[in-house]
Design a protein that fits this description.
Structural class: mainly alpha
Order of helices and strands: HHH
Radius of gyration: 21 Å
Number of helices: 3
Largest sheet: none
Number of strands: 0
Helix content: 55-70%
Strand content: under 5%
Shape: elongated
């Protein structure tokens, strides 16, 4: 899952870079309407990129539910038996 999101983030950053270059070119051509529309789209794309990055930050997908299981295999949430050997948990 992390690889998929990392790949999405990589392509998102490339897309944002291309949009910045296009915005710069629109300014050079004095096409301010196009530049303004692209800046609004870029702002939304940067927000998406930030959210993708925040999912990858601090190994959130790797950590999973480990924070709910104490080191002695007791269930902190107390919602049933928790076993580290069960691959479905």
């Amino acid at each position: 899952m992390r690889d998929f999101i990392r790949n999405d983030l990589e392509h998102e950053l490339k897309l944002q870079d291309m949009m910045r270059k296009t915005i710069q070119r629109a300014h050079e051509l004095q096409d301010f309407g196009t530049a303004e529309v692209l800046q609004e789209v870029l702002l939304e794309r940067e927000d998406l990129g930030y959210h993708l990055w925040s999912v990858l930050e601090d190994d959130t997908l790797v950590r999973g539910m480990d924070h709910l299981i104490a080191r002695d295999d007791t269930n902190i949430v107390r919602d049933g038996h928790v076993s580290n050997t069960n691959k479905l948990q």
